[in-house]
Design goal:
With 348 residues, this protein is an alpha+beta fold. It has eight helices and 14 strands. A hairpin with a 5-residue loop joins strand 11 and strand 12. It binds ligand DP6.
């Protein structure tokens, strides 16, 4: 059968991840200005069904995109340039009609970043379909998926593996690369193996400034050079902390990274503030709770108002009680989502 008559489908479910050292600033084709480290979540996922079949009309990409079972022209338009780039390696994308149907396990407007789970699922589907359609085995399946996930959205390249992942070239890790993420689980002390991430939804809905626009603002940022230097240094420090099982060092470094990210936003040539009064109220509460209890609760923030609470899973019971008694009132409609470190994407 020629490729033009091929019918094939595949489905991947892929998770989001939370950055501990943040990727903020890029160069070239989606290359990071600094290395970053994250862990993969278990509950916040995107499931993507990717089908190809005979194409009737014209040249170029022919796509139907459904999001949560509804046709979604806005997402479809966003996806086109990605698929056009991907056709450099996956030439069959031009020869077949494509039907993609995608849905999230968390509400789209909840303020949880979905580009990492969406593009990692998409890239994994591309790799699986490539093997099915061409009969060729990809030499390094997950590395290829990480590469294409990165082209879709930088942080997505860290979602193709479970556990802890590092993206970006650093002298502190042999084999690290700007092109793809690498898994670093084998280096991680058991103190960090079971960790929780409770996402407090301080504000739902679209952010005032997208991550993509935020990255671009670093281009003319007066502190960009210092930031890249500190992030590179923090990557080395966090690797040592993860190896040693140093929980206090972890708290200090991860919170400083989150605050530096927001400080960069506030000091960019076009300044902006994504934290809300309730974000700050929660940060204060976390600090007080930690001082009073000695428990290892810490926060991190993405480019938005929501707060990620991190803690060792062994402390979950006391911390979940604290969330219910003291923090839930700061969340929009009392919404929060519990995640643990996840095992990574699943082929369905
Ligand atoms: C603050 O990966 O969403 O979450 O590459 O433009 O799609 P694009 O940006 P994106 O940026 C994520 C920024 C961050 C930090 C991080 O995840 O490392």
């Amino acid at each position: 059968m020629s490729i033009q008559e091929e019918t094939a489908s595949v489905c991947w479910k892929s998770p989001s991840n939370i950055a501990l050292v943040k990727y903020w600033g890029k160069r070239g084709e989606q290359l990071p200005a600094n290395p970053s480290i994250s862990f993969t979540l278990d509950q916040a996922t995107t499931e993507t069904n990717f089908k190809v079949g005979p194409k009737t009309e014209g040249s170029g990409i022919s796509l139907d995109f459904l999001f949560e079972n509804q046709k979604n022209p806005i997402f479809e338009e966003k996806l086109m340039p990605f698929l056009e780039k991907a056709s450099r390696d996956f030439a069959w994308l031009n020869d077949l009609h494509i039907e993609i149907s995608s849905s999230n396990t968390f509400p789209h407007s909840s303020g949880i970043a979905s580009s990492a789970s969406a593009y990692s699922a998409m890239a994994l589907c591309l790799c699986s379909l490539h093997e099915k359609i061409t009969g060729e085995k990809l030499e390094d399946f997950f590395s290829t998926a990480s590469y294409w996930a990165r082209i879709g959205s930088g942080s997505a390249c860290r979602s193709v593996y479970g556990g802890y992942n590092l993206w970006g070239s650093t002298p502190f890790l042999e084999g690290s690369s700007d092109q793809v993420a690498v898994n670093i689980d084998h280096l991680v002390h058991h103190n960090f193996k079971d960790f929780s991430d409770t996402i407090l939804i301080i504000e739902k809905g679209k952010k005032a400034v997208s991550s993509t626009a935020g990255h671009a603002l670093l281009k003319q940022h007066p502190f960009a050079g210092t930031r890249y230097h500190l992030a590179a240094e923090n990557t080395g420090k966090l690797l040592n902390i993860l190896k040693a099982g140093d929980l206090d060092g972890f708290i200090h470094l991860v919170e400083a990274e989150a605050l530096m990210l927001h400080a960069l936003m506030m000091t960019s040539p076009t300044p902006f503030i994504l934290m809300k009064p309730n974000t700050l109220a929660v940060l204060e509460k976390i600090k007080d709770f930690r001082n009073q209890t000695g428990l290892h609760l810490l926060f991190t923030l993405d480019a938005g108002a929501n707060v990620h609470l991190l803690n060792p899973e062994s402390e979950d019971a006391k911390i979940q009680e604290f969330v219910k008694n003291e923090l839930i009132g700061f969340c929009q409609n009392q919404t929060y989502f519990c995640n643990h470190i996840g095992k990574g994407p699943e082929l369905k």
